[in-house]
Amino acid sequence: MFKYRKWLGASLGWAITGNPLGGMVGFMAGHFLDKGESSSAATILNGLSELEVNVIVLASHLIKIDGKVTVHETDYLHRFLDEHFDARFTTNRYLVINHCCEKEYDLNNACDWLRLNTNHGTREQIIHLLVDLAQCDGVLSDKENYFIFRVAGYLNVNDVQYKNIKLQHVYVVKDCFAILGVSPQATATEIRNAYRALVLKFHPDRNKSANAQERKKLAEKFQQIQEAYEQAKKQSVNSAQ
Fold first, then answer.
1. Is the pTM of this model over 0.90?
2. Domain that holds residue 202
């Protein structure tokens, strides 16, 4: 995984310490106020910077771009932000992530603010974050790749720089189809049937006579099978589109 610098301090200036109701934060607060939830606006947005909220808007769109929101992805984003922003506001952060996964905000506005108020190094690291987030389930889909590529363009990160960023995120995984024992051209039904057969064979609970060392190997194999199944499902969907 890419090693991030501390990208929230130098050169950001008022972007962090300025008016808490400016830009995207203001739009979000307005949404709660329009619904008569002024207390929600004050509670949820307390302690979050304009920079952080704009990053969450882009990342949340990426999370739901394939039509579903997974706990794995939202947890990854939440942990990352806790590491790079003020950890005291972790609950507020969690609520804003969930809110943005349910409601869509203007992505152009988010990109405009980030382009105008952060330096190029910070914008590159935002792209690194988006690539890491997209790959945290093992696969960078075509939809995810195209979205990140478009965001990179809006943030003045050119296509050569974007390709170099992706090269730093080579996700080393075994061939998921080989692990499942099916062809890359296998149908969703064939993939599912292969997965179920392997679960019956390698699940630790079905091998109770195994010793401690054998059970450890079975657990590792079972986890590998589960990860391969998730990757194969996603790749199968992408190739069918």
1. no
2. 176-240
Contacts with 180 (C-beta within 8 Å, 6 or more apart), sequence order? 186, 191, 194, 195, 198, 225, 228, 229, 232
CB 122 within 8 A of CB 11: yes
> Model confidence over 62-103: pLDDT tens digits?
999 988 888 888 998 999 999 888 888 899 899 889 989 988
Q: Does residue 3 fall inside a structural domain?
A: no
Any domain includes 112? yes
Angstrom distance (rounded) from CA 220 to CA 202: 10
